[in-house]
Design goal:
- The protein is mainly beta and 414 residues long.
- The chain is built from two helices and 32 strands.
- The chain has three domains: 110 residues, no CATH class; 148 residues, no CATH class; 130 residues, Sandwich (Tick-borne Encephalitis virus Glycoprotein, domain 1).
- The strands form eight sheets. Strands 7, 8, 11, 12, 13, 14, 25, 26, 27, 28, 29 and 30 form a twelve-stranded antiparallel beta sheet that branches. Strands 15, 21, 22, 23 and 24 form a five-stranded mixed beta sheet that branches. A five-stranded antiparallel beta sheet has the order 16-17-18-19-20, with no helix packed on it.
- A hairpin with a 4-residue loop joins strand 25 and strand 26.
- The chain starts with a helix and ends with a helix.
């Protein structure tokens, strides 16, 4: 009898709604979880005829679950302080795969860690995919592969080829006064050498300079060995007029550690063209020194940039890109199928994954040292639960009423 099937369909539909609400509440603290809601649709209406004016007379057959929709809005960002954790804000999903196959899955759960091989992985052991890097250059055109943070755990040394010194020489210094500025430079083996630039005032607006290195570093005798010298001339405003920048031809040969000979240039001007070497009526001092070489570095830590680039920090104060996390988007996110543990897979309804970078092509950005919380709204879920409960009770009441009517009909017959 339809009198029984209609309220039974209501019980089944409201029970499904309560199940969805219960699942949302159960995953209130599940990282990256997206809440779900159920929509209902009426069942086929049976035609009973037409009214006197020709309008159809139809009686409904009950209700069914029309669909389940996931809310893919952002969850709040929870800062964890763990370098491997990532929170995706905006469109997109992290791309992961099982270590034993090439089946891709997609997730919003960025509670990542490192496995024994140095690979970035999910809490379930799936490998996080992204774009590899070589010598700090990301191969964004390559196919996504598991990100291995141990691939560049060390970086080789780079020999110094140029240096700068921001120095003021005291214009009131007496002739014969000296001032020295040390700077460390690196050879091809990554060993540091202490150069010293000594300035000597030789006259009005005129200084000489001498660049020396410890004699032991070049197998020489005595304390220091001179590798360059020259004259500095300033105008009446204390600006350097000669020599022209840069001073090239500073040669260091015969290094005792067996490194290649060094050829250095001394850049006397900054990026804006202003002189880094001045003569003002102020105590001689060197404010800063810079040079473009460094020794061998080992990975000491890393951070994640908004575009998903994993930026490594090394013991030699250098930074280098270790890889870039991939982000996938879909034409219809409601078509994705959930497989548990926060994972989803693509279907014909969702369309194929479009894999790219965070912050590009409509994809969201990544927050490092954080995870995305569930977007379940506790108060909204309790409100929905009350509505579903009332609907369930109403259908149960109709079912009880129909049962009473049936019993009364049976009693009339007997």
């Amino acid at each position: 009898m339809s009198a029984f099937s209609i309220p039974l369909s209501g019980l089944a539909a409201e029970s499904a709604a309560l199940n969805a609400i219960a699942n949302n509440l159960a995953n209130l603290n599940t990282d990256g979880y997206k809440s779900q809601s159920i929509s209902f649709g009426d069942l086929f209406n049976q035609m009973q005829g037409v009214s006197g004016n020709g309008d159809p007379i139809q009686v409904g057959s009950g209700v069914e679950v029309g669909g389940i929709t996931s809310d893919y809005s952002n969850g709040s960002v929870n800062s964890t302080g763990i370098a491997t954790n990532m929170a995706l804000q905006g469109n997109g999903f992290f791309v992961v795969r099982n270590s034993g196959d090439n089946q891709m899955s997609f997730t919003r759960d960025g509670n990542f860690s490192m496995n024994a091989q140095g690979q970035l992985c999910t809490s379930g052991g799936q490998l996080v995919l992204g774009y590899p890097a070589a010598n700090g250059q990301i191969s964004s055109g390559a196919a996504p592969v598991p990100i291995n943070l141990n691939d560049q755990s060390t970086i080789p040394s780079v020999a110094t080829s140029s240096f700068q010194m921001t120095t003021n020489l005291d214009a009131n210094a007496a002739t014969g006064a000296t001032f020295s500025s040390p700077i460390s430079v690196y050879d091809s083996l990554g060993n540091a050498h202490a150069l010293t630039v000594q300035y000597t005032k030789t006259g009005s607006n005129t200084w000489s300079y001498s660049v020396t290195i410890p004699s032991a570093d070049v197998g020489g005798t005595g304390t220091t060995t001179q590798v360059a010298s020259g004259t500095l001339t300033f105008d009446s405003s204390g600006n350097l007029t000669s020599p022209a920048s840069p001073v090239s031809g500073i040669k260091i040969s015969g290094l005792a550690d067996g490194a290649a000979d060094m050829s250095l240039s001394w850049d006397l001007t900054g990026s804006g063209g202003a002189s880094l070497l001045t003569q003002q009526a102020s105590t001689s001092a060197t404010a800063s020194t810079t040079q473009n070489g460094y020794g061998v570095g080992t990975l000491t830590g890393f951070s994640v940039l908004p575009d998903g680039t994993i930026q490594g920090q090394f013991s030699n104060n250098q930074t280098l890109a270790l890889g870039q996390v991939a982000v996938a988007s879909f034409s219809n996110v409601q078509g994705l199928t959930q497989t548990g543990n926060g994972n989803l897979v693509s279907t014909a309804a969702s369309g194929a994954a479009v894999i790219g970078k965070a912050g590009a092509g409509g994809n969201g950005s990544i927050v490092g040292d954080a995870v995305e919380n569930s977007n379940v709204n506790l108060s909204a879920e309790f409100s929905s639960m009350i509505v579903a409960q009332q609907g369930y009770e109403a259908s149960a009441k109709v079912l009880t009423t129909m049962n009473q009517i049936s019993q009364a009909t049976i009693q009339l017959i007997t």
